[in-house]
Structures are given as C-alpha cells and as structure tokens.
Design brief:
cobalt, 3-dehydroquinate synthase activity, Rossmann fold, amino-acid biosynthesis, 19% strand, 2 domains, 4-stranded parallel sheet, alpha/beta, binds ligand LNCXM5UN, binds zinc ion, lyase, binds nicotinamide-adenine-dinucleotide, Dehydroquinate_synthase, 365 residues, Dehydroquinate synthase-like, alpha domain
Length: 365
C-alpha cells in the first residue's frame, strides 16, 4: 500500500493512501498503534456518517468498545459549543488515556476532533481518516483548532495524529465545490515549493469533472510531499512552516467576515493567493504572470476577487489579528518568484489600497 512518511520532531507517522482502505482501518489501527487501545470514539459529521460510518465501525469487528458522535456538517461546527458537546460525549463514554479518537471526515472534523484529542485529559491519541481532498492538508502536520468569531483557528494546539488513513475512493462522493476547495491547497503547495508540480497541475487539471483516481493519487502524493517536507523542517511554525499560510491571511479574514461556512476554506484561500501574487508583483516590482494563473483559476470556477459585500477596513483588522502578525503589523507570505516564498511585513495602507482594487465589480466574478 502507498504511504507518505511524516517525520516531525515530536513523532513519525504514515499517511496510508489506498482506494477502499476504510474497511481495513480497525485492523490497521491495532497493528500500527504501538500500545494497546482501550476504546474508540469516532467523530464524524452529518454528511459523512450515512456514507462511511458503518464501514469504519465494521472494520473493528466488535473487538473494542466503539462510541460514535455525529456533528452537524460545516465550518460552523468548529465552535466552542460543538467542542463542549463532543467533550461531553467523550466523558460520558468514559474514554481513558488508552482510548483513541478517530476523526472521520474533512478538515472540520479533523481540526475539531484533533483539538478534542489534544485537550481531553490533557491529551490522548487520535487518528485521521480524511474524506475530502482538502483534508490531505488538514490531516497532516498536527494543527488542530476551533474558530472564534474574531478569527479563524484562534483556539487550538499542535497535536500530531498516530496515523492517517486516506481512502481516496471516498473522495468520489464529494460535490464539485469541495473538489474545488481542496484543490486550492494542492495549488498552494505548488506555488510555495514546486514549480514543476504547478505546471503539471495546469496541464492536467482543467475541470473537476471525473478526475481519474490514478491522477488524484499522483496529485496527492506530490502535494503531500511538499507538506511533509515543510513540517519536517519546522513542526511548530517558527520559520518555514508559515509558507503553508500562503493565501491564508486574506483567506481567513474573508471566511471570518463572511460568516464561517459561507465561503469554503479553499475558495477563500484561492482569492487570497491571487491577492498575494498581485501584492508580490507590486512589492518586489516583478512579473509573476498573475494573469495566467487568474485565468486558470476562473476556468476552474474560482472567484478571484473579493465580494463587494465585505468591508475593507474590517478585513484589514482581521488580517492584523492573524497568528503571524506581530504587534498589530500584517505579515503575509509573498512570492519573490514561483516556489520562492517568504514572510513579509506589509504596511496596512498598501493592503487596503489593493483590497479596494481587487473588490468585485458587477459581472466581474
Ligand atoms: N489543520 C490544518 O492544517 C488545516 C489545513 C487546511 C484546512 N484546515 C481546515 O479544514 C477545514 C476545511 O476542511 P474541508 O474543506 O474538508 O471541509 P469540511 O470538513 O467542512 O468538508 C466539506 C463538506 O464536505 C462534506 N464531506 C466530507 N467528506 C465527504 C465525502 N467523502 N463525500 C461527500 N461529502 C463529504 C462535509 O460534510 C462538508 O459538508 C477548515 O476549517 C480549515 O480551516 C485545516
Ligand atoms: O499546516 C499548516 O501550517 C498550514 O498553515 C495549513 C493551512 O492550509 C491550514 O489552513 C491551517 O489550518 C492554517 O493555519 P493557521 O495557523 O493560520 O490557523
Ligand atoms: Zn488552509
């Protein structure tokens, strides 16, 4: 079975990738996890549960006490309220320090369940079972969090999974909008670290209709390789890991300002990446051929401009509250050239001016 090795300072684990893997997860957990498991809590959401929960439960063959909890699907579930509900379920199920949490779903379930695992009894083990394209990114690297109305992922920690079980067959029940959202993080990995991968993506992916499984597997391995390299170098984001935030300073501000769940994470990041490319051109006085990327994004159905329903100064304030900011300055990931990322402090007035220029106008998506 294909796997990608993740070697961060605190842990080494594997991302297993295979079509149909979900029916083997129970057995695999018992062999991959190094110490015994007392019980399992599977956390999933209301869209994923009817599709895949029975398969995962069945894969344990009744050898362990299995508890399940189903949260409402969508970004709004990365909240204090749902966090408390899931914690209550964990306590009522009497999870102990040998229990394991299984995060079955996309990035919302992964981030929330991972944060529950990192804080329940000060931290128990968890595994990721990603079911979205986007979750190739969110299931790896150990960032787990919930949102605060004042900012995305503001309450969280670093807590690495024991393993990631990626059943790529499960991606084929995703609606087109979720392929688009996840693909933004794939593109991001190309922009920050791998230009030839980015060129390959432009040649191979011209729509999200029926992407062949072989292509998807290839794409995931290349994309995961970038993430694996970066988190291996810098697990806790004291340096290069910040490059994984390319497109996110504005993207997160758009998500929070629009209301969590109104714009998907990847679609907001796509707008943020085009903005960061244009800002890079301006600040470094270079030509990154943004028009070419913007045209590709549009052909794939992304919006590249900022909704004119959003307020520019509120977006700037959110960007000043970003985790990369220091003393209220805005620090953004820019590109000096493709695959050469760096973290740059940008004066708010320059950001504000470009935001105004990048607002959508009627019939200009
Ligand atoms: N921790 C990290 O490093 C990291 C990285 C990137 C993104 N994120 C976070 O991930 C979240 C976004 O994740 P996401 O895009 O996976 O969103 P999501 O978890 O909300 O999933 C998207 C939608 O698809 C549904 N779904 C999931 N799997 C499905 C399947 N196989 N078939 C049909 N429907 C399915 C979900 O119910 C949901 O409605 C954001 O909160 C973002 O901040 C975290
Ligand atoms: O793994 C990382 O590091 C990332 O930044 C990946 C991002 O795609 C992801 O959205 C992450 O959750 C953003 O992190 P945050 O620290 O800005 O909340
Ligand atoms: Zn992201």
């Amino acid at each position: 079975m294909n796997h990608v090795l993740i070697e961060v300072k605190s842990k080494t684990y594997k991302v297993y990738i295979d079509g149909g893997l979900r029916s083997k997860i129970g057995e695999m957990m018992e062999s991959v996890l190094t110490s015994p498991i007392s019980s399992v809590l599977i956390i999933t959401d209301s869209s994923v549960a009817p599709l895949y929960l029975d398969d995962i439960v069945g894969s344990f063959h009744e050898k362990l006490p299995i508890y399940t909890t189903v949260i409402k699907s969508g970004e709004a579930s990365k909240s204090f309220e749902v966090y408390e509900q899931v914690m209550t379920k964990a306590l009522e199920s009497r999870l102990d320090r040998k229990s394991v949490i299984v995060a079955l779903g996309g990035g919302v379930v992964g981030d929330l369940a991972g944060f529950v695992a990192s804080t329940y009894m000060r931290g128990i083990r968890f595994v990721q079972v990603p079911t979205t394209l986007l979750a190739h990114d969110s299931s790896v690297g150990g960032k787990v969090a919930i949102n605060h109305p004042l900012g995305k992922n503001m309450v969280g920690s670093f807590h690495q999974p024991e393993a990631v079980f990626y059943d790529t067959e499960a991606l084929y029940s995703l609606p087109e909008q979720e392929w688009r959202s996840g693909f933004a993080e794939v593109i991001k990995h190309g922009f920050i670290r791998n230009n030839s991968f980015l060129n390959w993506l432009q040649a191979e992916v011209t729509s999200f209709e029926e992407l062949p499984l072989e292509l998807v597997n290839q794409m995931l391995e290349k994309s995961l390789a970038v993430k694996a390299d970066i988190v291996a170098e810098d697990e806790l984001e004291s340096g290069v890991r910040a490059y994984l935030n390319f497109g996110h300073t504005l993207g997160h501000a758009i998500e929070a300002e629009s209301g969590y769940g109104v714009v998907t994470h990847g679609e907001a990041v796509a707008i943020g990446m085009i903005f960061a490319l244009k800002l890079s051109e301006k600040i470094f006085e270079i030509d990154l051929d943004v028009k070419k990327y913007e045209a590709w994004f549009k052909r794939l159905g992304y919006k590249t401009r900022i909704s004119n329903k959003l307020n520019v100064s509120r977006l700037v304030t959110k960007m000043q509250n970003d985790k990369k900011a220091e003393s209220g300055t805005i620090r953004m990931v820019l590109l000096r050239e493709i695959e050469e990322a760096l973290l740059v402090e940008v004066p708010p007035n320059i950001i504000e001016q470009l935001l105004v220029e990048q607002m959508e106008v009627e019939n200009n998506g």
